[in-house]
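Lab meeting minutes (informal)
Scribe: AK
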Amino acid sequence: MPPGPCQAIKKLPAAPPPLVRNSLVSKAEEYLGIRYKYGGNTPKEGFDCSGFVKYLYNAEGLSIQRVSRDQAREGRPIDPATAKAGDLVFFRRGATSPSFTCR
């Protein structure tokens, strides 16, 4: 695969089954409108991007790191055409920079 954004898409080593993937998306939609809070980990206090991902994955019994750069390192590159609900998308800010779920 050529270098570029395609290599930025990652999935966890043990990909969740379809039922869990659908549940992750449904649960995420329930939290639309929750305020952004840097370092936030719960609906009550608000979420930041990686805190939101960790909250959702943990609720499904999936272990994932708290910080987005660590979440990105847990995964492996996949072809964007094969991305599924529940996969995480990370964007690299530079060739040697860490990846983040959002800014």
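Next up, CB showed the second protein from the same session:
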Amino acid sequence: MAADKVTLDEQLAELRRTYVAQLPAKVKELRAAHAAAFDADFDQDAQFKYYRLAHSLAGSGAIYGFQVIGDKARQLEQLLKPHAELAESPPATVVRAAVAHLDDLEVLVRESCSAPA
């Protein structure tokens, strides 16, 4: 009977593996949100979605033990936040900085996905 029980550590490890498997899609979704918000005409709703996705990744990264990913996502979130809250188009320097954060996140995610569990 004891062999049938899944321990809490095993459950947490499985949740972490699932989260790692979802990370590339999360970065892809952030890139798509960036494009929707800024690549053509400014889109206020898309910008807010982009900000919320960064906020979500910042929190979940920390919760699942990926502090570096969470920290980088938090930097992106903080960069986007003032413009999302004011529903204004950010200057080109902010948009370029957001792309740099996305590039960094992509590298961090790739490294996390290739690291042993």
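CB comment: The helical segments are 8-38, 44-63, 67-86, 92-114.
No objections, moving on.
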